[in-house]
Amino acid sequence: MDASAYGFDNYSSTKRLWFLEVCALPFQDMKINTANFMQLYAWYSWPNVVLCFFGGFMIDRVFGIRLGTIIFSSFVCVGQVIFAVGAICNTFWLMEFGRFVFGIGGESLAVAQNTYAVSWFKGKELNLVFGLQLSMARIGSTVNMNIMGWVYSRVQDLLGSAGYTTLGIALLIGGVTCIFSLVSALILGYLDKRAEKILCKEQKKTGEVIKLTDVKDFSLSLWLIFIICVCYYVAIFPFIGLGKVFFIEKFKFSSQEASAINSIVYVISAPMSPVFGLLVDKVGRNITWVLCAVVTTLVSHNMLAFTYWNPWVAMSLLGVSYSLLACALWPMVAFVVPEHQLGTAYGFMQSIQNLGLGVISIAAGMILDSRGYLILEIFFSACVCLSLIAVVMLYFVNLLRGGDLNWSAKKRNKLQKLALAEKET
Fold it and tell me: What's the rounded Cα separation, in Å, for the pair 127 and 123?
């Protein structure tokens, strides 16, 4: 069961990193330290602590999918322009505001994208479409990581010097893809409207029913899944945000080499996410796969922290484990939560994920400024250890309650067929 089929893990996280990597060009141009730099990451997350609950509601009840997609795409475009103008004017608070505006549109745009997919495709082809969406997002991140440094250099050659003006212009050039996204939203809205008339089809809704009072009914297994999610992802995204400079300083790579190795997580994730999704579909044993992914991630961070081995090995392991965890972890929510609570559960999961990413991003910047990369890697390893403890606890809690989260796919399908037969009878 591919996690992308649930619309999570996560177009939005990839888009967040896309723009973090754009601004990860020489941030010394803005005369800021690492803690302030990582606030640009956090400012994306803050609005999504709340908006992940209401993005689906606004699409369903307020804007509709077509207008909602255009509005959220516009927020992304405006946010990136403000962000770039802030760099050109050497005004850091304006850059933070731009990231905030960008964040308002980012998560909700992901919800709209998934709603379109559900509207146009169904069944097994829907799994393929979601897998392709996830792969395209990863490819976009990879291309960005490897090309924005080159764009900055070309602008620098054109202007004759580096500085915040050069950075701002590079950010504006990078923001052209946001305009392409908005144009695509307009075209897609037109095509969807024509399909509605020609095929007499209704607009699909997100299916997200949010009821915050359901939180009190969440099981221990679900809370452990939340802990695994937060503790794992805070050791991935902030690390990649700071990874380029890490590889330059520790391994003495060139800027281009550092960008290439920092993007290997997404290079691997693009083709492997659909493959791992199919594998988990066929085999089952979700907790076992999550355990393998967390342990592999811990090994990867320790290799980067305590050895000078070729980091391509550690980053490749990180890419494989990241893809595997996404495909095994997010579907487990649907196994432990009734259908009418799925919207609330996934919304809450994304909310605390964004809260954790916002807080840890700032903390990571402060640790790097005061203690250096070794302590930062130990900090990330500690986060993964917390995730590992939660996985072990989930295994035993699940075992005591019947073991359904770690059933094989064959056993799960058999029991589902029996349950359906009993219901029909």
Answer: 7
Structure-block tokens of residue 253: 């790579």
Q: What is the DSSP string of 15-26?
A: HHHHHHHHHTS-
| Spatial distance between the Cα atoms of 328 and 280, rounded to a whole number of angstroms | 7
Shortest CA distance to 40 belongs to which of 353, 322, 260, 357? 357
For residue 331, the 8-state DSSP code is T
Cα–Cα distance measured from residue 398 to residue 336, given in angstroms and rounded to the nearest whole number: 10
CB distance 5 to 277 below 8 Å = yes
Instruction: Give the per-residue pLDDT at 16.
Output: 46
- Report residue 185: phi and psi, to 5°: -65, -40
* CA–CA distance, 397 with 407 (Å, rounded to integer): 14
Paired strand residues for 408: 284
For 147-156, the pLDDT digits (tens) are 887 888 888 8
Report which of residues 63 and 52 the model is more confident about. 63
- Residue partners of 36: CB distance under 8 A and separation at least 6: 92, 365
305, HSE (Cβ side, Cα atoms, 13 Å) = 18
C-alpha distance across the termini of the chain, in Å: 28
Q: Which helix (H) or strand (E) holds 333?
A: helix 332-336
**H helix intervals, 65-205:** 65-88, 92-120, 124-159, 164-174, 176-198
Of how many residues is the chain composed? Answer: 425
Cα separation, 230 vs 359, in Å, equals: 11
pLDDT digit string (tens) for 285-321? 889 999 999 999 999 999 999 998 989 999 999 999 9
